Amino acid sequence: MTEPTYGPPATLQDLVRAALAEDVGDGDRTTLWTVPPGVKVRARVVAREPLVIAGGEAFVEVFRQVAPMVTLRGPLADGTPLRAGDRIVEMEGSARGILTAERTALNFLAHLSGIATLTRRFVEAVEDTEAGITDTRKTTPGLRELEKGAVRAGGGVNHRMGLYDMVLVKENHIAAAGGLRKAVEAVRRENQEELLVEVEVARPGQVEPLEDLGVDRILLDNMTNEEMAWVVDQVQGWEPPRPVLEASGNMSLERVSQVARTGVDLISVGALTHSAPSVDMSLLLEGI
After folding, report:
1. Which end of the chain has fewer beta carbons closer than 10 Å to its terminal beta carbon, N or C?
2. What global pTM score does this model have?
């Protein structure tokens, strides 16, 4: 079978161009038919709820492609916390350009700010511990780089970007390879790039065989808090450097602080990218 080949990832310009194509198509009929050419306006984007900004670069790129002559003051830097009523960005220029760009620009900004806002809540929930909050590959196809950037804006850290930049040996890999040791030893033979190697385990008893395999991380999948605390205690007794311990599975805001107190190093939360709600913000015209 011929191995598939993949081209380079879409650039921000490509993503914005595709988003505008699906929204604007061959023209914004409403704006073209109701707003006379040459009308200039002032406008602002306002937060309707407390949030953390992310996606400013995509917002600006939408206006660069639709209405490059519109003057933007902002948006505020990614990672900026805001209260309800705070201004995110101010703009002045073509009414047609602003109204046509509005929805696509806000879609990027609200979605990515939603991820940053949820991430900040998780980070704050564990801030009195040593645990870090990290994301997963459960991202919107095509938007991974932007969504992982939003996680960073919220104070989280990124896990691997894809299948190419880190090894994560999961239960299906282990089954197909003929066992845990066979899977890990095969990785060690092939890993000329010296990528980080992580192994997923679902039961505390699966951890002990990893002590002499030299893995960099151990993923504790869907374990109870008591099981994770036991694993932490066991691994702390290993000769250094000990592997990083990552907790994963059913992580909620209500539970995450308890998980952090088991002593794990990282807590991965798929919900940061696959379930974060878009935040509420509005674009308002201020003057003509």
Report:
1. N
2. 0.95
